[in-house]
Specification:
The chain is mainly beta. The protein has helices at 5-14, 107-117, and strands at 18-22, 25-29, 31-33, 47-57, 66-68, 84-89, 92-104, 129-132, 137-148, 153-154, 160-174, 180-183, 187-193, 201-208. The strands form four sheets. Strands 3, 4, 7, 8, 9, 10 and 11 form a seven-stranded mixed sheet that branches. Strands 5-6-12 form a three-stranded antiparallel sheet, with no helix packed on it. Strands 1-2 form a two-stranded antiparallel ribbon.
């Protein structure tokens, strides 16, 4: 998948495989994006709804110049002992924000999910991360706000809903140009000649790197 869709999939995967207690033992909590727009009255609860927000460049994290590119999506990974690497202009860092809403029928499930999402592998207050398998990267995931639990709302069927909202920031990078693969220098051979006479060889070298 291309950039941004990778992040979308990773956020959904991070919030998946969650279950809450129920009389039958446990109840799986589905995760969905708000596009297409979900009808609140038609959803099953509890449910986690994701909405992608702003995408903006991050000048405070930008590098300039040409160097070794840490990842290239869609390119083969170097094998052991492989001296070929990808080089080019540095990727452009961006911040991607996600609004995450948790909707529950009961306050018990709301409280249980707040505790689950506060864990280190979900949406912790610090040291959050997001794994992108397509580029083998682990990105910072920052909790900007939340959990915020406003007054319960009523859906289109007149039933009460308990909601919890989070705002998270993913620090990602975008490569708008094609990186090139170059072979590192493996063997250097030459001589050092007197600069004035151009005749006298002062030294020779043959170095295997």
């Amino acid at each position: 998948m291309p950039w941004i869709l990778n992040e979308d999939g990773a956020v959904k995967a991070k919030l998946s495989d969650i279950a809450v207690s129920a009389p039958s033992g446990s109840l799986a909590v589905p995760v969905r994006f708000s596009t297409p727009e979900p009808e609140v009255g038609d959803m099953t609860y509890p449910v986690i709804v994701i909405e992608r927000g702003t995408i903006s460049p991050a000048p405070d994290r930008m590098h300039q110049g040409w160097g070794l590119v840490p990842f290239v999506e869609g390119k083969p990974e170097p094998s052991a002992g492989d001296l070929w690497n990808y080089y080019g202009d540095w990727p452009i860092p961006h911040d991607v924000h996600y609004q995450i809403s948790v909707l529950c029928r009961t306050q018990t499930h709301q409280t249980e999910l707040i505790g689950i999402l506060a864990r280190g592998d979900r949406l912790p207050a610090k040291y959050g991360y997001l794994e992108i398998p397509q580029t083998q990267r682990c990105l910072p995931l920052n909790l900007v706000s939340g959990p915020e639990s406003p007054t319960p709302i009523t859906d289109t069927n007149g039933k009460r809903l308990f909601t919890t909202h989070y705002l998270v920031q993913v620090q990602t990078e975008f490569m708008p140009w094609e990186a090139q693969r170059y072979e590192l220098i493996q063997h250097v051979r030459g001589e050092i000649v007197d600069a004035q006479t151009k005749k006298w060889t002062l030294a020779t070298f043959d170095d295997q790197t």
